[in-house]
Specification:
Layout lengths: L10 E7 L2 E7 L2 H16 L11 E4 L13 H7 L3 H15 L1
Antiparallel strand pairs: 1-2, 1-3
């Protein structure tokens, strides 16, 4: 799991090659590619890692796009078993409407 704080200069990048994809935190496209390939080789082993002639690197931008999903936090908290917190947040949402 990756966390990016607002003040960090690194960005998230989606890196895809052959039959795998990974998301990394890096300063630029080249660094993202290096981190991704090293990570996948470390995880799958050199023999288990397929590569192709090119690696696709896409910077994940923070603006909303047409295919983004916005999910309600109270529902997410409920889904992971934090029912008390979910209910409290739902009450805050409902109070803001009044």
């Amino acid at each position: 799991m990756l966390i990016k704080l607002e003040e960090e200069e690194e960005c998230f990048y989606l890196c895809s090659c052959s039959d795998w994809s990974t998301i990394v935190l890096a300063k630029n496209h080249n660094q993202a590619a290096s981190i991704a390939v090293k990570f996948v080789i470390d995880e799958l082993g050199q023999e288990g890692t397929n590569i192709s002639a090119a690696l696709r690197v896409k910077k994940i931008k923070e603006e909303l796009e047409n295919n983004d999903f916005l999910l309600r936090m109270d529902e997410i908290l409920s889904d992971i078993g934090l029912y008390k917190e979910s209910k409290a947040l739902r009450e805050i949402f409902n109070n803001d409407r009044d």
